[in-house]
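I'm stuck. Protein, please.
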Amino acid sequence: MSSEHLLSSYDYYLPQELIAQNPVIPRDNSRLLVINSPENHIHSVFRDLPQWLLPGDLLVFNNTRVIPARLYGAKSTGAPVEILLLEEKEPFCWLALVKPGKRFKIGSEIYFRLDDDEDNFLVATVVDRDEETGGRLLKFQVDSLDLFWQKIEEIGQIPFPPYVTESDAKPSQYQTIYAQKPGAVAAPTAGLHFTEELLENLQQKGINQAYITLHVGLGTFRPVDIDNIKEHKMHQEWIEVPEIIVEKIKETKANGGRVIAVGTTVVRALEGTAKATEMAGKQELMEFRGKTDIFIYPGYSWCVIDGLITNFHLPKSSLLMLVSALIGRERLLELYQIAIEEKYRFYSFGDGMLILLESKN
């Protein structure tokens, strides 16, 4: 088996103190490691991003919004229950992780207190079990989508990643400033560095902006736990790449510009759309709305993107494999060691990387 396909080849040691517990304020004051050629790297600051891009380049952002996915309720007996919503399967019906989960049989009810009124509850019923995740399908007893989201906002909490254990961050700091469409259970963290001022500066330089949607779910933070990574199965995530964005991508490439993904979720959305296009027997990229389970690792042939803005990722993660497919595993791990020596901050609230490839045009 090639070392590129061995899980152990994607391991590295990270000192605990480099796991960022709080975001930088202002957001664009974070550091930026710029890789603008296979051999070269430069230490920069995120607010200087416009100087590394060219007029006519297209930045593609993920406008998903993190939902208050962590809920605390109780069984009919009064026993406490913790819920993590993962994915909407149909209106008012969600796949969720339940703790403690072993005793939750089909038909069990969970009660979430809405206010100080003892009789005012949001009720969810267990309607099925999910073997893949060990989770449950919960059907919430509500009459409308607006009412559902109103109640979830009232009782839920934004779930920070498990490695963020000592944070003073506010829930709003775990949302991008352009978050619009609720549905994610984790933030597309490369976008957390952007401020209104930075977006305006990019626009003034002639760097275009486009927005797609990928609702970040289990597939993003689920660990790879199989020695041969080619056998890893990605969880599906919902994406929407509308026709207007496809046209922007085509126009950018036709004019010699670069398509730069803001985050690995955008990479998965755009390359997942290319995969769906190919499966439909089409030659030109087409719009797509549906689910993708695309898994990108070294050896992947890129279809859409010419560059990537991303954070530093966990060892042995599918995200580390995706970035390795862009610049090479050995080069990426070398850059990670440089970042560690330079005391860069890692993971969701950490610093960023900008990786630029030569345009294919």
Remarks:
- The chain is about 20% helix and 25% strand.
- The mean pLDDT is 92.
